[in-house]
Amino acid sequence: MPDLSVELGARAYPIHIGAGLLDRADLYAPHLGGGAVAVVTNCAVARLYLDRLERALRAAGARALTRIVIPEGEQAKEWQTLDRVFDELLAARCGRDTLLVALGGGVVGDLAGFAAAVYQRGVPFLQVPTTLLAQVDSSVGGKTAINHARGKNMIGAFHQPLAVIADVATLDTLAARELSAGMAEVIKHGLILDADFVAWLEANLGKLLARDRGALVHAVQRCCQLKAGVVAADERETGLRAILNFGHTFGHAIEAGLGYGEWLHGEAVAAGMVMAAELSARCAGLPSAEVARVRRLVERAQLPARAPALEAERLLELMQADKKAEGGQVRFVLLEAIGRAVLRGGIDPALVRQSMAAAR
Ligand code: NAD
Ligand code: GLY
To answer: From the CA of 35, how far away is ligand 1's center (Å)?
Structure first.
């Protein structure tokens, strides 16, 4: 039985969460179709987990197995890498019945998901996330994309996976910096939707950073449950789903401004959440004690709470170009309270500058 599912009618799909799931042939078997499978992963994850995944896929009935290994890092989330994936799929004669499996973090998931969305007008795919960030966020919800020099995730598509298989045991090998980056999205889910979960995080952060399995399973489950609810209500981000971008308007500008890969996505989101909390205090009534709580949680998760050395004007310019800007007007996700998010446009840029300065 799946732990959770994303309720999207005929396109509903399960999210399996637990330790040791990577080897579970029974979880892959229902999705194999004709048996042709192409696994997209990166070189680091391939070394760690590709053989095990392929063994499980074969046991599940996969016959033709193609492996496509892309370079590591955010810089790989771009057009040339995508083109190489298409080239290898075509060279291996992968047809429309091929199942694409994304094995890795959010970079692999976003890029392989986009490849699946457009290869031969769309093929099915599975998300097998191996970073905390991917398990709590990017593998769920069907947003797929690559970056463009002019902006983050600017070229992409909505394409839901057939299932998400999140093995928390794979987090054992994750670098501490990457685990913290994933914590940013964990904290985000609590801040926008669940004050009790924030209190749980405050009490259990030490266990999470020490990779306590039980704590990790609980955090991944709660985040996926919260995100699945939002995605089911607003798959294409016509309204509610935008709250999942809390901290991201600032964060994406930081990533683009510094150059992709300089700060990890989660690190940029962490500093972005502190700026968004500062802005919330100025425009949405968030008490300053709660801003301090956000900052403390970010710092305790070993994430940057301060903005990088980037000109405020440059950040503002990059925010205007963000997908979340409408008619050139940036819409911010703000907190009225911990656990309650609102969307606001038409904010005085002077308040945005003040909030960025307060986070320096
Ligand atoms: P990532 O994919 O770059 O992975 C981080 C690093 O961890 C990489 O070096 C990778 O090789 C390594 N790694 C992966 N799994 C490992 C494991 N089990 N053990 C050891 N090393 C491992 O980064 P990420 O933080 O997973 O994802 C960030 C990306 O996700 C960004 O591009 C961001 O835009 C995207 N994102 C997408 C969504 C969405 O809804 N689609 C949501 C949030 C973030
Ligand atoms: N990470 C934002 C979303 O999935 O909508």
So the answer is: 27
